[in-house]
Amino acid sequence: AQTVTQSQPEMSVQEAETVTLSCTYDTSENNYYLFWYKQPPSRQMILVIRQEAYKQQNATENRFSVNFQKAAKSFSLKISDSQLGDTAMYFCALANSGYALNFGKGTSLLVTP
Amino acid sequence: ETGVTQSPTHLIKTRGQQVTLRCSSQSGHNTVSWYQQALGQGPQFIFQYYREEENGRGNFPPRFSGLQFPNYSSELNVNALELDDSALYLCASSPGLAGTFYEQYFGPGTRLTVT
């Protein structure tokens, strides 16, 4: 079975600061993919960043980067230069070569002026 | 290029009724997945359709069923609605299957309330 755990239900950060969201996971597969999705109040689930497990290099997308620790089964998201528009629920998700995304319970991020 | 669309946006049903939710996949995508997101939770996988066939299913009872049409749009049907079925239902489409994970693109969801 695959599990995804997000231990921070809520976080807050000031505009322009950096914040890190935590995620741990468990899977018996060797080939899998990890994702961070953003869900703003509009409800649309938006892909922020993805990481293939076979790649050692951490993924980066503009202000978003991950710290992927495969042995520790940890996949944290760092948001640099936080903006008000980053306020949203953030979900960590895991998928293998099958078909389903397994999501964590999410972290609610509030960016304050 | 049109993204994933879902209809209706909201609906309210009574316990015991049946409901049909609809999803139009993104252009060029032949796989559709459905997820249920209860309030305050992450989405839970219901099932996936690939080229009109059910390809996989999560831990949901048989009263949750679906269809995929030749144009790759899809329906989610729920019979004998229960109060716990109240949730946001998300549809996601992707361009293929064949053992390789393809990125899933989500629609805006349908908010179902069962009273």
Tell me about this structure.
The complex is a heterodimer of chains A (113) and B (115). With 113 residues, chain A is mainly beta. In chain A, 0% of the residues lie in helices and 53% in strands. Chain A has no helices and 12 strands. The model of chain A has no long low-confidence stretch (mean pLDDT 93). Chain B has 115 residues and is mostly beta strands. In chain B, 0% of the residues lie in helices and 50% in strands. Chain B has no helices and 11 strands. Chain B has strands at 5-7, 10-13, 19-24, 31-37, 44-50, 53-57, 64-68, 74-78, 87-94, 105-106, 110-114. In chain B, the strands form 2 sheets. In chain B, strands 2, 4, 5, 6, 9, 10 and 11 form a 7-stranded mixed sheet that branches. A 4-stranded antiparallel sheet of chain B has the order 1-3-8-7, with no helix packed on it. In chain B, a hairpin with a 5-residue loop joins strand 7 and strand 8 (74-78). The mean pLDDT of chain B is 92. Chains A and B meet through strand 6, strand 10 and strand 11 of A and strand 4, strand 5, strand 9 and strand 10 of B.
Uncertain residue ranges of chain B: none
Largest interface here, residues on each chain? A-B, 24 and 29 residues
- Residue ranges of chain A: pLDDT <50 for 5 or more in a row? none
Quote the distance from N terminus to C terminus of chain A: 41 Å
Number of helices of chain B: 0
The helix/strand class of chain B is mainly beta
